[in-house]
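In this section we walk through a basic example: taking a raw amino acid sequence and producing a predicted 3D structure, encoded as discrete structure tokens. The instruction is simple. Fold the sequence below.
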Amino acid sequence: MEWYYSEGEEQRGPVSESVLIDLVEQGVIRADTYVWNASMPDWLPYGEVQAQSDPMRTNDTVMTGSREPILEEKTEPLAVASLVLAIVGCGCGFFASIPAIVCGHIALNRINEAGGRIAGRPLALAGLVIGYGMLVISILGFIFTFLGAFFA
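The resulting token sequence is shown next.
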């Protein structure tokens, strides 16, 4: 049976079922990736299609291509730490912004290496954006403070 899947806004395929399973194992197709074949009336997330084809599967697991259940995506703790430190950095400048940036980059690296099995990308990105923003604001504040004291 030939399968089609979505990657971003683009439709990919047709691919055989064995290639589809390989794409799942590689992390290209995740539980939330929409798939379709000629026997289906509409596109569905891969996780739902897998649940319908395997009656032993429970709702609290996501199937991998190897047919072994794993827990639902967990959130990367450093992504949460990045966002919290970035928000704290809004009050204390670069002292919390630098750790927020470091945690954000480490979290994104771990999320990318996990191939979609770890959630938290938006949290890490928000932590990075706020952290970098507060770092720039802190540096500009120091520059203007120094210039104000120098020319006063």
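Looking at the output, two observations stand out. The first helix runs from residue 17 to 25. The mean pLDDT is 83. In the next section we compare this with other chains.
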